[in-house]
Amino acid sequence: MKLGVFIVLFGQQSFEEALDSAKAAGCQSVEIGTGGYPGTAHVDAKAVVNDEAAVKRIRDAVASRGLTISALSCHGNPLNPNKEQAQADHEAFQATVQLAEKLGVDTVITFSGQPGESENSKYPSWVTCPWPPEFLTVLEWQWNEVAIPYWKEQSAFCRKHGVKVAIEAHPGFLVYNTETALRLRREAGDNIGVNFDPSHLFWQGMDPIECVKALGDSIYHVHAKDTKIDARNTALNGVLDTKHYGDILNRSFVFRTVGYGHDDEFWKHLVSTLRLVGYDGTISIEHEDGIMSVNEGFTKAANFLNGLILKESAGEMWWA
User: Fold this and answer.
1) By residue range, what is the domain housing residue 122?
2) Phi, psi of 58 (to 5 degrees)
3) Is 252 inside a domain boundary?
4) CATH number, domain with residue 166
5) pTM of the predicted model, to two decimals?
6) What Pfam families has UniProt attached to this entry (predicted)?
7) What is the DSSP string of the chain?
8) What are the mean pLDDT values of the chain's consecutive 10-residue runs (320 residues total)?
9) What is the domain count for the chain?
């Protein structure tokens, strides 16, 4: 496996400086934001996809540092009932797929998207329970009339360009857990897989190790980000927490740097289980820790994971 980093965390640096930061920390690959929620601080897929000189500059900047690109990321909501926003995210996705082909990158990461409750919606609407019964009617419409048709078309588009889609399961979107990820893959195309991020699973009460086993070869990319569950706040309010992420003291959970939500035994087990199901790609550090600075969180994560990957590669499995 390779250690990588989602370089949007170095958004205040130039592209070249961000690559240097990744290299200096011992990373072997980078994940690049190209639109959507990750922004375009380093690369704007729509702006450069038809500029061969710009594409060459990206390729050369990465290669000259001995790095590779693990994925291009354009997380967005192409199913948004706001048609203007949906179109912008759709265009960013398709431009990213085309850019990935030109760069020789085989994986594009995004979200499944989330429709509204009907054709007349103004905002996305995420169903979280089966009652009142109208919720199931909404959910059936969202999947069968919006999501599956859209992703069938995108699956064909990606196949034409030799690119796989890694959907990041996240609450608030149709794909948020194991069964919804596998449903989209089964019904829309087997080149649609998963960007596996355990941090989004912890706070839903899921076991990421078991999820890896169930997802198997549908895992196309992996994010390294941890979650700390606050026992008292969760005991009082559960995990459906809508408080701002900055309200750390009162939230049921917060995202943390790897090792600060779950100990090294978990992370050793995770890396080894990924290997057991055949994953040999990049583990990409994503920093969303509200307590640590970017530099501190990234450095701690890189040091932690570098040692872990080296040990695992040498055959020191989690149970050893």
Assistant:
1) 2-7+24-189+205-227+262-307
2) -65, -50
3) no
4) 3.20.20.150
5) 0.96
6) AP_endonuc_2
7) -EEEEEGGGGTTS-HHHHHHHHHHTT-SEEEEE-SSTT-SSS--HHHHTT-HHHHHHHHHHHHTTT-EEEEEE----TT-SSHHHHHHHHHHHHHHHHHHHHHT--EEEE------SSTT-SS-----SS-STHHHHHHHHIIIIIIHHHHHHHHHHHHHTT-EEEEE--TTSS--SHHHHHHHHHHH-TTEEEEE-THHHHTTT--HHHHHHHHGGGEEEEEE-EEEE-HHHHHHH-S---S-TT-GGG-SEEEE-TTSSS-HHHHHHHHHHHHHTT--SEEEE----SSS-HHHHHHHHHHHHHHHHHHHHTT--TT-
8) 97 98 97 98 98 98 98 98 98 99 98 98 97 98 98 98 98 98 98 98 97 98 98 96 97 97 95 96 97 96 88 58
9) 1
In a domain, 245, yes or no: no
Tell me whether residue 195 is in a domain: no
Q: Please indicate, yes or no, if residue 249 is contained in any of the structural domains.
A: no
